Amino acid sequence: MSPTRSATIVVLHAESGGTGKPPATDQIEALGTVRYVTEDGLTDALRDADVLLAWDFRSQTASAAIERAENLRWVHAASAGVNHLLSAGVRANDVVITNSRGVFDEPMAEYVLALVLAMAKDLPSTLRLQHERRWHHRESETLGRSRALVAGTGPIGRAIGRKLTAVGVRVTGLGRTAVDRDPDLGSILPTERLAEAAADADHVVLAAPLTDTTTGMVDAAALAAMKPTARLVNVGRGGLVVQDDLVAALRAGEIAGAALDVFAEEPLPPDSPLWTMPNVIVSPHMSGDVVGWREELVALFVDNLTRYLDGRPLRNVVDKQHGYVREGAR
User: Boundaries of each D-isomer specific 2-hydroxyacid dehydrogenase catalytic domain copy (predicted)?
Assistant: First the structure.
């Protein structure tokens, strides 16, 4: 990008909650003219703007507004996933998309480790029995002799691989390209070998981006290939899993359990059977959200905005055709 002296920046936020206005907005305002809008005002706000900070990562209409914005040059997503922004029109235009890769890696890896441990040690039952004041001794499982398949070879998947390896889990990765020896994920198998790889795993962890290739990757066939003692952990995107197939597999005892932080529909509807299944842990899309995460997101955007104004390469530029930041990219 060539240097520019100023920028008109639109910040898309929700009315309230986790995607309300970002903190430390003075840092953004010091670098340009800033407009704060919700979805209803986005199209009008973008008419003469050149930068969009998509702070509201749950927006389902932002891509349509981006397609119509003739002067828009760059969109930064306050999330690692960008599938909500990549409509056919956005993929085809010249707008640069960047994401917040790097902010969530370690927190999400810690969360996955906690979920794997919670299920292996049957902590949900312990808490339930404590609430019932029942003394019921059980035997738990050790992680040291277990295997994990981590789908997703980006920074989040790699951080997960390192955390699991540190407690003795033997890790295999699943990604776009096969690799014999990987420092974080052992060997990496291609995505089309999911069923084969899942058959050997005690823990199947999903941390892949949602793309045309990965949508619905865990379906009835993949679940049937898993061990009846295996468990599924999804911290990637809800669309990676065919949810009805998962419910059926859990009910039939085809797999032992699941820990789910993301869902096809969020919030998870109150009538979903997943809420009350004894072998399921449900959390509200919070695996990467630790104290200070919003400030880190703003700091990353401000750094990129400074780069944009100086005409320097942006960090975390997304390959719009595939929906991910290429390895080795800034």
Answer: 38-318
